[in-house]
Amino acid sequence: MKLARYTHGGVTTIGAITGERVVPLSALDQAAPSTIREVLAAGPDLIARLTRALVGTSVGVPLADVRLEAPIPDAQKYLAIGMNYHDHAEEAARAGIKVPENQLWFNKQVTCITGPYDPIYKPRVSEKMDYEAELGVVIGRRCRYVSIEEAASVVGGYFVANDVTARDWQFKSPTFTLGKSFDSHGPMGPWITTADEVMDPHALDMKLWVNGEQRQSASTGGMIYNIWQQIHELSQVMTLEPGDLIATGTCANVGIALGKFLQPGDVVRVEIQGLGHIENTVADEPV
Ligand code: MG
Fold first, then answer.
1. Please, which residues have CB less than 5 A from ligand 1, an ion?
2. Structure pTM?
3. Is the pLDDT of residue 67 over 90?
4. Confidence at residue 174, expressed as pLDDT on a 0 to 100 scale
5. What is the structure's pLDDT at 277?
6. What does each C-alpha distance from 132 to 55, 72, 189, 216, 264 come to in angstroms?
7. What residue ranges do the domains of the chain occupy?
8. How far is the centre of ligand 1, averaged over its atoms, from the C-alpha of 40 (Å)?
């Protein structure tokens, strides 16, 4: 099931995508929760019931008539792993950046989250704004000390992410957090594809374009630490909650490696096989 959060006629609600329509969840089940986080937390039985109700329904509104919003705008955590694709670690090593010996984690502060087609703002204090195509994971079940074998069972779904980065701020400190956390630098969407619809999250084509020029292209199989290893690592430290977001790393050909940083007017599109695409235009930060 593809769970979207959208605005139509001035009202923001959640729904399920079918073909080129979105059906409000309340039309499928009057008792359905009002947030995607709660739907995921309710578990596979509710998702299976909603999926059955969606078959053959004729209600809903055309996707073209709605504005898609960030599916989970109020995540409690947005964690991201750095240098996690073999080809990206190699390009970083060529630039003199040491390849980490362990999983390298940082926060994207949750205030960076923005919608799949919203503007992303070039900070007035950065001249090195960059993109990173990434597969996003959303946790579906409260968990701690999750084994690698059990990790798939705590995933609620997947989404397309752009880990937008201010490189000059990223490298000002070893934690990366400031350079990864500017407002609007966490576009996500276009919806959450629930885990039952993703046969193998480590075999998805992931691509990124800037102004129609393809920059990044990889399979999610290129990860150094796979999603299950990532969840195992994080859950040894903290309780993971439904709605928590994880960005699983980017592949080669980020802007800094090409010597091309994002500028106002640039259009950045990220697409992942089976999960849809997001497209964000770079704009000057509002005064
Ligand atoms: Mg990243």
1. 132, 163, 250
2. 0.97
3. yes
4. 84
5. 98
6. 36, 20, 14, 8, 17
7. 2-69, 78-284
8. 24
What CATH number should be reported for the domain whose range is 78-284? 3.90.850.10
**Is the peptide bond preceding residue 190 cis, with omega within 30 degrees of 0?**
yes
Burial grade of 13 (CB within 10 A; 0-12, 13-18, 19 or more): middle
Q: What is the pLDDT of residues 214-246, one digit of tens each?
A: 999 999 999 999 999 999 999 999 999 999 999
Which of 77, 74, 76, 65 minimizes the C-alpha distance to 36?
Answer: 74
Going from the Cα of 19 to the center of ligand 1, the distance in angstroms, rounded, reads 31
Distance between Cα 199 and ligand 1 center (Å):
24
**Ligand 1 centroid to 147 CA: how many Å?**
24
Tell how far the Cα of 238 is from the centroid of ligand 1, in angstroms.
Answer: 20
Cα–ligand 1 centroid distance for 60 (angstroms): 35
Residue with tokens 């993971």: 240
* pLDDT tens-digit map of 128-161: 999 999 999 999 999 999 999 999 999 999 999 9
Cα gap 78→186, rounded to integer Å: 9
Centre of ligand 1 to C-alpha 158, Å, is 16
